[in-house]
Amino acid sequence: QVQLVESGGGLVQPGGSLRLSCVASGIEFSNSAMGWFRRAPGKQREWVAQILSTGTTNYARSVKGRFTISRDDAKNTVYLQMNDLKPEDTAVYYCKVLSRDSWGQGTQVTVSS
């Protein structure tokens, strides 16, 4: 059974940075493509970024150049480094094994002055 535990969210001022972490278990992590998604208040969940087992990354246009996804296969962990945060980045952030239909509890990111 896939388990995902996200952490690292919080309250940050516009222009600030946060680093999210997601520890995965119940999967062969090193062979798994991982993604970050987010759900803003009143909106549907949207894809933010993904990283393949090869290390290839892709980003949503809204975060490209500001966010960086990375992985540490030895720790079964995927990260999302978020820089130059904007109020519109406020959301609950979730990680996901792209080939599975399981979600963690998410971590809240609030960007506000």
Description:
By secondary structure, this protein is mainly β. It has no helices and ten strands. The chain has strands spanning 3-7, 10-12, 18-25, 34-39, 46-51, 57-59, 67-72, 77-82, 91-97, 107-111. The chain has a six-stranded mixed beta sheet with strand order 2-10-9-4-5-6, with no helix packed on it. Strand 4 (34-39) and strand 5 (46-51) form a beta hairpin. The chain is globular, with a radius of gyration of 13 Å.
Q: What would you report as the Rg, rounded to the nearest angstrom?
A: 13 Å
Uncertain stretches: none
* Element string (H = helix, E = strand): EEEEEEEEEE
Biggest sheet, open or closed, and with what strands and sense?
6 strands, mixed
Strand order of the largest sheet: 2-10-9-4-5-6
- Assign the structural class, choosing from mainly alpha, mainly beta, alpha/beta, alpha+beta, or little secondary structure: mainly beta
Structural shape? globular
The number of helical elements comes to 0
Oligomer: single chain
Percent helix:
under 10%
Mean pLDDT: 96
Beta-strand percentage range: over 45%
Distance between the terminal alpha carbons, to the nearest Å?
40 Å
Total beta strand runs: 10
